[in-house]
Amino acid sequence: MSLYQPIKRLVRHSAIYGIGHILSRSVGFFLLPLYTNLFSTGGFGVAGLAMTWLTVFTLLYAYGLDAGFMRFYVLASQERERRAIFSTAMWTLSLSSLFFSLLLVLFAPRLVALFFGADARAAGVDLVMIIRLLAGILFCDTAAFIPLLLLRADEKSWLYVLIKTGSALALLAANLYCILHLKMGVEGLFAANLAASALTLLALVPLLLRSGGGHFSRDWLRQLLRFGLPFLPTGLAIALLDSADRLLLERLDSVAAAGLYSAGARVGMVMGLLVAAFRFAWQPYFLATSREKEAKKIFSRILTYMVAACLTLFLLMSLFIDELLRLRVGGYSFFGEPFWASARVVPPIMLASLFYALYLVFEAALYLEKKSGLIALVTIAGLGVSLAFNLLLIPQWGPLGSAWARVIAYACMALGLFVFAQRCYPVPWEWSRLLQLCLSAALIYALGKLPLLHPPVAVRLALFAAWPLLLAAAGFFRGEEREIIRGFFRKIM
Fold this sequence. Notes:
By secondary structure, the protein is mostly helical. Helix content is 82%, strand content 1%. The chain has helices at 4-38, 41-62, 65-75, 79-106, 108-115, 118-121, 127-153, 157-181, 186-203, 205-211, 218-228, 231-252, 255-268, 270-289, 295-319, 321-325, 346-368, 372-397, 399-424, 431-448, 457-473, 479-492, and strands at residues 328-329, 332-333. The protein has a two-stranded antiparallel sheet. Helix 7 (127-153) runs parallel beside helix 9. The model has no long low-confidence stretch (mean pLDDT 84).
């Protein structure tokens, strides 16, 4: 059987999840002109810090139960077992998230000094209100975790995308209403998020009623927690890798520096959209594909294609990032002028997402072998690397130092998982093709960003168009791949 047949299923679901994720995340991307033209760098820095705490608490609220649910639900052989797993996870997360959110609401005034530094507290934002809004968002999002995971586990990708797209449109409308009409400022950003999260949970009620009926099982809860709890430090480490840099920037530099970094990181996370689309489809896919005879060859080919896709997007964005941020529509630029300096952090943020994609592929081996403890060990070590390099580089380079600290941390994590994965589940990776991809992309990037030449836009467009031609000249494409490409162009013609 051709390797391309099983890969098509992953590509199809990744494309569907990608469409939905791009639609939902593009709302936040296209709201950036609103934020960067109406908020100060300090105000947007406070928003970035609050989003950091939202990310951290999202992981704490789930405490790894989502990872346990996905594994045991997908591999369960009987419908009765699946219903019991669903009901156990759903009731546990819903009740615990309600309890945690009530604590946040009650103790919000005391938590302000813990969550925000003096610079952020002086930014003129109602931080108590923001913490209470975060509590509502966390409850709604956590209660929606298991139903959304159920859609992914059952490969109902279109329904998943429909719900997430509706949530994104609600978020857009709520942002415009709260910020432009009610003029709520930074607080309006989080009020809009709460409205969108509540509507998402409401849309999932029919699925909850249809999929419930199973009994709560202490035995299943013990199994879910035994497998899932090691993913709590893993998830927290990932969340802090993507968020703690803002906290350190605020303390070691300024809240304005954190605002610049947050803006640039949001643009750089365009690569994160691609990786997230892959991640949504990848976990149920590799669990199912692991039973096939040529699973390791399939995983190897998938890594090659993922790296190719990421590097293509990296070149497209990094070669033209300055023009994108300065793009003017009417009297406004895409980014307000005070935020133009954030362009420098975009390429390294995208590189970090590329290494995260490698991490996800290598993680599959340890997941299959039930080595979740090793995943946690490597990820926590990566967090340590991130904190160390942030402390080292922020005083010298500011926001750019944080961006490169993230790259180094994710590269170390990918390398660590690769070493452990090859010992317990060795895969014959396509090293020569991966090297061709990296060297070709590095050449194109270097020519397009030479500081002495300052190549004009037309030259950079030509360089980007030469990327696939350079790969072809290097002998990257296989015979069946060339035939697929020819067939694609014949259909277009």
